[in-house]
Known about the structure:
The protein has a single domain (about 10-205), classed as HUPs (Rossmann fold, 3-Layer(aba) Sandwich). Helices cover about 35% and strands about 10% of the residues. The chain has 8 helices and 6 strands. A 6-stranded mixed β-sheet has the order 3-2-1-4-6-5, with helices on both faces. Helix 4 (about 75-90) links the parallel strand 2 (about 65-70) and strand 3 (about 95). It is globular. The protein starts with 9 loop residues before the first helix and ends in a 51-residue tail after the last helix.
Amino acid sequence: MTTxxxxxxxxxxAARSAELEGRSADDILRWAAEQYAPRLAFATGFGLExxxxxxxxxxxxxxxxxxxxxxxxxxxxxxxxxxxxEARYGVTIRAVTPLHTVSEQATREGGGLWGVDPDRCCELxxxxxxxxxxxKHDAWISxxxxxxxxxxxxxxxxGWDGKFGLVKINPLVRWTFDDVKAHxxxxxxxxNQMHDHGYPSIGCWxxxxxxxxxxxPRAGRWRGREKKECGLHLRPVT
Length: 238
Ligand code: SF4
């Protein structure tokens, strides 16, 4: 494995972020590919925003390494979307998997860990495999938007991800959910049909419920708990 590129200075990243702040997501992704491919990754969770990123990347022929964290606990509809995206765009979205299967985890940690200690479960099934995968890259792309959660409100377009030790690029930070839906409709982007049935935010099936009209779009994630993030994008940039 080749070693990572030297960390850019905080000032350089801040300047790049300021330059890209008013640019389109297409421009930001093109810049990211010019700077960091082939050591540039996009980890999709198959949300609407992630489908938009894949659509833009493929339409511009950008050499971005696409992968997903397959916890083994995704909805059947999500696995179906995964295959539909690959077929539509002619890409491979690699599966990055935890060290242990769900049944092995049950043997080692006890069954239904997500109900007992969801932070531990997310650490084992998402954070650890992501940490290993991102070691191979110099930069990664996220599909976060500033208006999704208070923690994401100050996310820059480009910054240093101190949690994983690489550059993080957020092409959709300025987008609203209406912008995302408009792009999906305009380009006929494949998406998870569950979004049409009360699931605006979809994660693993044990930790996702439908939301009622007017509820926060993420209210169905880890319902009844303070936890609202799996940790991937929590305080991402330092
Ligand atoms: S979202 Fe739930 S099931 Fe998935 S890894 Fe986190 S705690 Fe486990």
